[in-house]
Amino acid sequence: MSTIEKQAYDRNRYLKKKEDFIERDRKRRLLNPQDGKRRATNWAKNHPRALNIIQSRCQQMLKLEVLGKYSNDTFRCTNCNEDRLDCLTIDHINNDGQEHRKAIGSVNMYRWLRKNNYPNGFQVLCMNCQWVKKAENQRSRRASSKLLRRRLLIEDLINSRYTP
Question: Residues with Cβ < 8 Å from 113, sequence gap 6 or more?
């Protein structure tokens, strides 16, 4: 029997007894749940490059899914209409990204968004627009803190001069 004939025979045999094979595998997984995890761990150790490729593709697909949800499937930056996927990211609209990351811990943001049914408060920005937004926020915070320090200094001066 040639290799092609053997493959055809095995395929026909599988198709005829497909339900039996599926049931047998289901029972085996129920009886030995650790066996599948052990095999998967061994495979991952023996195939690190393949695992890396699979994980990268899964991450890319997840990023596409999340960016599609928050951009209404336009895949463009909210500010400048940049459409290169490598440049696009998710941005916290209310500038509370640091507090949010502390609250959720070290979790992949895209996975967290999908798990929580894509909550409001996020937008798609390219890295340039996100960088500009961050710089503007830092500038305004510094300016407001300088003003506050000046006001406090003036109040201290006034209070110290006119106190009997």
Answer: 66, 69, 90, 119, 122
Read off the tokens for 95. Answer: 């500038």
pTM of the model: 0.66
Question: Domain residues of the chain, as ranges?
Answer: 1-46, 47-161
Q: What share of the chain is helix, strand, coil (3-state, %, to 5)?
A: 70, 5, 25
Cβ-count burial 132-152 (b if 16+ within 10 Å, e if not): ebeeeeeeeeeeeeeeeeeee
Predicted confidence (pLDDT) per residue in 24-51, tens digit: 888 888 888 888 888 889 999 999 999 9
Could you read off the pLDDT of 87-130 as tens digits, one per residue? 999 999 998 888 998 998 878 999 999 999 999 999 999 999 99
